[in-house]
Write a structure and sequence with these properties.
By secondary structure, the protein is mainly alpha-helical. The chain contains 20 helices and 6 strands. The longest helix is centred in the middle third of the chain and has 44 residues, at about 260-300. The protein is globular and about 75 Å long. Its main location: membrane.
Length: about 475
Amino acid sequence: MNMAKYTESAKELLEHIGGNENISVVTHCATRMRFVLNDNDKADKQKIEDMDVVKGTFTNAGQFQIIIGNDVATFYNEFSEIAGVGDTSKEDAKVAAKQNMSFIQRLIANLAEIFTPLIPALVVGGLILGFRNVIGELPNFGPNNDQALVELSQFWSGANDFLWLIGEAIFHFLPVGIVWSITRKMGTTQILGIVLGITLVSPQLLNAYGVAEATEIPFWDFGFATVDMIGYQAQVIPAILAGFVLAYLELGLRKIIPNVISMIFVPLFALLPAVIVAHVILGPIGWVIGDWISNVVYSGLTSAFGWLFAAVFGFAYAPLVITGLHHMTNAIDLQLMSIFEGTNLWPMIALSNIAQGSAVVAMIFLNRRDEKEQQVSIPAAVSCYLGVTEPAMFGINIKYGFPFLAAMIGSSIAAVISVGSGVMANSIGVGGLPGILSIQSAHYLMFGVAMAVAIAVPLVLTFALAKTKMGKNAYERLGK
C-alpha cells in the first residue's frame, strides 16, 4: 500500500466515522487506529468494516479501534492530513477516553496504567525464575538421573546464584517499581516515588519474608511511641497506597506553596509525611488487605470447590479482558507470589490465551479462501499464542461469536485440570505457549496436559459449532 492509495480510503473512513467534528482524539498503535469519538453512535461500524483497508473494529476502554495492519502509521498520516486532526499523544488519548468510562472502568484503567509499565520486567523475572527452576530443582540429571544441574556443575551453580540478582531486584524490590509507576502516571516527581519505594524495602528493615519466623521485631523508639521496622518486599497493596498518598500530597502542595520556594518545600513536605504514613498506617493496613485477598483466592482454588472456581474463572477470563477487569489479576498474582512463593491463578490466564489462539487457528482453516480474513487471523493467532489476545478476540472470535464461546469452554476445562492437579507458576510470565517456562518444574507434566486441552478443545468445538445454527447465523450476519 502507498500514500496515494490511502487518499480515497481516508476520505471514506472520515465520512463513516462521522466527520472530523465527531473526532475528539485520534492516535495509533502498531496495527490499529485509536479514536475517542464525541458520539460513538455516529460511527457506521458496518460500513467501516466493509472497507478494503479495514481488518476489523472493536471498542475498548472508551476507544473505538480500527484494525488496519502493519501500514497503520502511513494510513494514519494520510488520514490526519485529510481529516485536519493534529498529532496527539497516546496519553492525551487515554485522558480523553476516560470521559467515556464509568467510575469502575476508570478505576480499572488506572490500575492498568500502574502495572503496564512494569510488565516487561515481570515477564523477564518470570522467565529467569523458570530457568532457575530448571537448573536448580529438576532432579533429572547425572548418572542416576537424580541430581539437579547445580549439583553437577559449578558453572550452573554460579549461574543460578547470579540470576537471583535479577529475580530479587524485580520481585522483592517490586514496591520501588510500583511507586515509581504511580508518580509517572500522576505526573509528579518520579525520583521521590523511587525514594519512597526504597524506604519500603530498605536493608535496615526486617525483610517481609522473615517476619513470620522472627522472634523479635525491631522498632523505632520515639519515646512516646514505637513503630515496627518491617519491610514490604514484594508487597503490592502497601506500595499502591503509599504511592498515591505521595502523589496527592505533592499535587496539593504545588497549589499552595509559592513557586520561588517550591523546589525545597514541595519535595520535603510530600516525601516525609508519605514515608511516615506508609510505615505507621498504610503498610500494616495494606499488608492485612493483601493477605486477606491472597488467602481468599488461594483457599478458593485449593478447597474442595477449587474446580468450580477454576471452571468459572477459566470461562470468564476472556470476557474480563473485554471489560479491562483482567488487570486486577496482576495485583492478585503478585500478592500470591509474596505469600505462597508462587501463583495458582496465573496458569489459568496463560491457558485462556492459548484457547483463544486455538479458536482462531480453527477459523484460519474455515476461512482459508478468504484472503482478507487471513490477513487478520494468522497474525492474531501468532500473537495470541505469545500472550497478546486482543487482535484474536476482537478481530476474529468476538466478531463471529461461536469461536469465542469455544475458546471459553476449552479454557474452562483446561483451568479445572490445572487447578485440580495443583499447578503453580513461579510468577507472571509470557501468557501463551511460552508460559510453561514460568511453571514450577514439578508441574510441567500436568500443565502440558492442560495446554493440550486448551489447544484441542477450542479447535474441535470451533469446527463443530461452525456447522450448527449458531455458526451459520454468524456467517449470514457477516455476509460470508
